[in-house]
Amino acid sequence: MIVSANHHASFFALLALLPAPVLAQSSAIEVGRWQPYGARSTYQRDARVPGDGALRIEPRRAAGEVWSSGAGLVIPDPLRAGEHVSAVFWARAERPVRVTATMNGAAPAYTALTVSPIDLTPGWRRYTITGLAPKDLPARSQSLTVQTGQAAVAVSLGPVAFLPGEPDAASVRNAFAGFRARSVAHDVRISSDPGVVLAGTLRTPTGHGTGPFALAILIQGHGPNGRGGYGSLSDRLLADGIATLEYDKRGIGASTGVYEEDIAALTRDARAWVTAMRRRPQIDGRRIALVGHSQGGVIAPAVAASDPMIKAVVTLAGSVGDGLPYLRRAIHNQMIAAGLAEAVVAPVVDAAGTLLQARSDGEDAETIARLRAALTDRFVAAGFSRPRAEAALSMIDVREAWRAEEMRSASDLRALQIPVLAVFGSKDPLVIASDEAPEARRALAGNPRAKVVVLEGLSHWFQEGAQTGGAEEVPKLGANLGSPRAVSLAGDWLRAVLAPARGNHVRATSGAGRKFPAVATLDRRDR
């Protein structure tokens, strides 16, 4: 999930990729689904509002633009041209203040369905704003946003319901009647490296006793990612009584420090979260699983390999390999998958490997410049235009690739004797399943509790409906990591391996009683 550096654009880019709540129309959406941005915020318990939960957004130290802080929530359903949709939500402020509520789409147009000033009071009130769709709009393309950038007081938001048309009073009452949140959100901040404070959200399930609960720590992939990328899987785990933790990468969102794609530093951060969660009374420190997507699928085995108390690991499109030989293999396989012939690919791979080895060895600037030019020429000889060749060079010659020796995912997987589930998508253009799944099987060959699965038709982002598997499809295919097959596979597996030691019976359905579709695999030999 790549987010723009511009705060306004980045917020809507984030919302466009966040998973939609799984609920029927007219059902309330719990507070934990609000995604705050631009100011410090905390989730709180508040019995005065339906669901007993609130998101408190602190005022900015210096007032910004109206939209520079606030919180948003994706409208889960598609809208038809000329259709009205209403957002009904609970809100209050420490003192009376006027803020702006909008329903609108993402960049570049930010086309608004409605822009409405609302006057908040110290008491909880229910507010309704109604917008009109100017054209057919796909699910998750529009968002409700409460903008607090110029509010000089703290604003609190409660649950939300999206209703068709302009609802009458009875419909509004029914949307919140008997509403009970499925989880409780807790804001957590921990220290990692000196000067780095990481911010995360721990969600504990309701309706499953008081704990301590098993926990899945959900680790994001490459890019400046914050919380919110695992919504569908998090919902499933919470329904099964498993707590979840998501966190902002260092330097992103509410986490301090400098953002950098440094595998070693990101692994230390994940390890710090494990240590902190074991200290919390709600969490059973003997039943912690690590779930990582993409880059997170490299970090999760690294943490587990050095921590014998980790209960289980799930990798979703996690690369499998060690050091520079892995990077050479990955570049080769991606070019072959793009349809290039071996005869033109091999010289590119050789030139890329030479450049990255020189970077690792600390060669002088003149040598690096010569090797960069040589790699660009190899791309051109392979049929790339000069601008496309330079773009490819900029993707390969990056700091994290210079640190290739820090990557030891094959060795880390080989060291594990705990339950491991490694999942790949057959249409993944980045982590090529036909190459990576066999590597995972080889690394896990000595682990009888490991399983490798390839899901047919899914791309790197685990969404249903992929055609090419390319990144351009992501905004059109619904929730990131939202494939019911992938969620079912990981959810069923985690429910089984995280069951209490006394051996609770594992049900054949989710916590909501729904059956999940069968898992499709490419290789029936998967363990």
TrEMBL record:
Keywords: Signal. The keyword Chloroplast does not apply. The keyword Signal applies. GO terms for molecular function: carboxylic ester hydrolase activity. Residues 1-24 form the signal peptide. SUPFAM superfamilies: alpha/beta-Hydrolases, Galactose-binding domain-like. This is Serine aminopeptidase S33 domain-containing protein. Residues 228-460 form the Serine aminopeptidase S33 domain. Transmembrane segments: none annotated. It comes from the Bacteria. Gene3D superfamilies: alpha/beta hydrolase, Galactose-binding domain-like.
